[in-house]
């Protein structure tokens, strides 16, 4: 609650827009849905799902990530408005060792994520349709994949960072147009290669396929951060690339070169 209040108190700081508390509960590990900027009128929306160890007590860090994403996306959007939303609407696994390998946390939380995305359409007060991006980190990407697998994912772009797998084996299964799935894997991030054995998708191309694999078909965005937790570090190319996608300027994103041949090791 203190972290949420601090975000409200920071409105106006360096141009930061009003905050909106869209959901709050002490159910389970806690629920908090906090928006930077009004999503009901925003031209561009981003809905971020945090991953393993996320809970109400630590939501301040996730809120700050979306503050940083808002600043970059707003700067890239010209005269169009942006709303970035932290969606802690599920019980994330709380232990990397004991819980993170199981898919039921994603499967149980995905319907609520889909309902929230549909609700953004229902609460819309502007005549135009927004450009909407699903953003996931770590296990949060697994929830986004489960949401697409269980129902229609009501977004235009998908951004995945540090993904251990999304339960499907191809970008086209994430319900967005071709070329609109974006992935980041930073140097030193061990989660993707370890997590693939629990959450990777399987098809005729093979087993345990994750978004970092060329076989998956995602745009591989460049990163200049290291490890699993710095994809939203201020002033980085990792963050800039995400902001460009959220602002609808994906054609300006820096991409890693596609290897001419690829054999996925295990």
Structure report:
- The protein has helices spanning 2-9, 59-76, 104-122, 139-150, 191-199, 237-246, and strands at 19-25, 31-36, 44-49, 82-88, 131-137, 157-161, 181-184, 201-203, 206-209, 219-220.
- The strands form 2 sheets. The protein has an 8-stranded mixed β-sheet, with helices on both faces.
- It is globular.
- The model has no long low-confidence stretch (mean pLDDT 95).
- The protein has 266 residues and is an alpha/beta fold.
Structural class comes to alpha/beta
Low confidence ranges: none
Radius of gyration: 17 Å
By DSSP, the count of extended strands is: 10
The major β-sheet equals: 8 strands, mixed
Give the strand order, joined by hyphens, for the main sheet: 1-2-4-3-5-6-7-10
Assess the beta-strand content as a share of residues. Answer: 15-25%
Task: Report the helical percentage.
Answer: 25-40%
Mean pLDDT: 95
Task: Please write the string of helix (H) and strand (E) elements.
Answer: HEEEHEHEHEEHEEEH
State the distance separating the first and last CA atoms. 43 Å
Tell me, what's the shape?
globular
List the total number of helices: 6
């Amino acid at each position: 609650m203190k972290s949420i209040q601090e975000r409200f108190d920071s409105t106006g700081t360096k141009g930061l827009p009003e905050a909106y508390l869209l959901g709050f509960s002490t159910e389970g590990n806690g629920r908090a849905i906090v928006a930077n900027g009004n999503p009901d009128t925003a031209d561009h929306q981003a809905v971020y799902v945090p991953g393993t160890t996320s809970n109400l007590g630590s939501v301040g860090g996730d809120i700050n990530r979306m503050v940083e994403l808002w600043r970059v996306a707003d700067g890239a959007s010209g005269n169009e408005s942006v709303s970035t939303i932290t969606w802690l609407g599920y019980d994330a696994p709380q232990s990397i060792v004991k819980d993170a390998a199981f898919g039921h946390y994603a499967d149980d939380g995905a319907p609520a994520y889909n309902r929230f995305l549909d609700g953004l359409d229902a609460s819309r007060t502007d005549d135009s349709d927004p450009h909407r991006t699903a953003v996931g980190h770590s296990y949060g990407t697994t929830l986004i994949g489960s949401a697409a697998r269980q129902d229609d994912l009501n977004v235009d772009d998908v951004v995945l960072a540090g993904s251990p797998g999304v339960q499907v084996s191809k970008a086209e299964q994430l319900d967005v147009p071709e070329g609109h799935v974006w992935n980041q894997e930073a140097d030193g991030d061990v989660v993707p290669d370890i997590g693939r054995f629990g959450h990777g998708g399987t098809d005729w191309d093979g087993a345990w396929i994750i978004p970092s694999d060329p076989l998956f078909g995602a745009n591989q965005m460049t990163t200049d951060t290291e490890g699993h937790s710095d994809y939203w570090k201020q002033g980085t190319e990792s963050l800039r690339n995400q902001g460009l996608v959220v602002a609808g300027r994906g054609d300006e994103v820096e991409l890693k070169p596609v290897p001419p041949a690829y054999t996925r090791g295990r």
